[in-house]
Design a protein that fits this description.
4-stranded antiparallel β-sheet; 2 domains; alpha+beta; Jelly Rolls; DNA-binding; homodimer
DNA sequence: GTGCTTTATTGATCCAAATCAATGAAAAAG
DNA sequence: CTTTTTCATTGATTTGGATCAATAAAGCAC
């Protein structure tokens, strides 16, 4: 059932015991979402981390009624409003399916129980948090130092899936620009070659 | 000696044993840096996390020979090129003292030994990584959704110390703009009141 | 399929920041 | 204290993206 997730864990923390993994499995629930459906709502405390088995998901941040795309997540990546999940404060971020999506969801209480029952699991928590941090670091450097045009070029190279499977107006939001600006950037890039 | 750091730990992980704390202390070294001095160099693997006892430090990212300020850190905050520290790859970030600074430095090997000898210490690692992540999340949202002018206004409110103790051209870099642009933003803000 | 809604493109205008350049102010070095 | 270097400000010009508006294309529902 959770083969892809198990594979992910094997790589992340190979020394994790079979007992811990078995207990962890029991904390998971499988969920299916239709394209456009809300997975986790902005405004209330977020209690889940989602491992995406199939589909694409976007995480956004509602500011002045406008959805700012924080990031896209694909098959075999995990996501969630990690901030709300950790702080137990109402989420600033919402999560929505961009395609029909299947996720394995881990509930907050389940994770806390894992930490309590299997102290070794703290290590997984640490590695996951560190991974999240590293991902953010890159995005941050990109937002700080690169122009929108460079950001788009790099995105296409680094995550070609995004350009292929995600609508442009969402990519524009992810890049921090308007759809019009992205359209013009694309035009410029085409005439470059 | 490490009172301020101990206080920080008490808040972060109150249940940490005295044994673990004692062992941890032994991993620390005290360092002094003059204003302008390099604490950790970009380009080589970073082996330290610094807890700042006194002074201000900046973390930057060298791109095309230009220092992009990632962040400033003050008394009783910790810093380091966490990315390089975690991945064991050459650092993309350098660290430099903005004022005369005293730090308590934790070496990578010391931390790994802590994890090995005191599995409970993984929890500290997790909480630290989570804290780093949360900090970055905010900065990210700010870079994505706010205009430089708003970013500056928010910075002045949230971290008045920065505006007071850090030169403007560094703040400009932190905001992702040129010193000229910041100078004009400040002018605009003054005439606002 | 037809119509309806959403998304993408293009044009025109406006604005904030980048860039280039020069001067003034402040800090560091001697 | 004086000189030198670094930092901050101001001006002129350029540029890329925002905004407003209109049209074209693609998706979706019926």
């Amino acid at each position: 059932m959770f083969d892809s997730l198990k594979l992910y864990f094997r790589k992340l923390a190979p020394e994790l015991s079979q007992d811990a993994w078995n207990a962890f499995q029991k904390c998971l629930t499988v969920k299916r979402y239709k394209k456009g459906e809300t997975i986790s709502e902005e405004g209330r405390v977020n209690n889940i981390v989602c491992f995406i088995e199939e589909g694409i998901v976007m995480v956004y941040n509602l500011i002045d009624g406008k959805k700012n795309i924080y990031n896209f997540f694909f098959e075999h990546e995990y996501t969630g409003d990690y901030e709300s999940f950790l702080t137990r404060k109402p989420a600033n971020y919402g999560i929505e399916a961009i395609e029909d999506t299947i996720t394995f969801n881990l509930h907050y209480d389940g994770l806390q129980k894992m930490y309590a029952d299997f102290p070794e699991f703290e290590r997984v928590g640490r590695l996951v948090a560190e991974g999240q941090f590293l991902r953010l670091t890159e995005r941050n450097a990109s937002l700080l130092a690169e122009k929108p045009e460079d950001r788009y070029e790099n995105l296409v190279v680094a995550k070609p899936q995004v350009a292929q499977r995600v609508p442009q107006y969402l990519i524009a939001s992810y890049l921090g620009i308007t759809p019009e600006a992205l359209s013009r950037i694309r035009k410029r890039l085409v005439s470059k070659f």
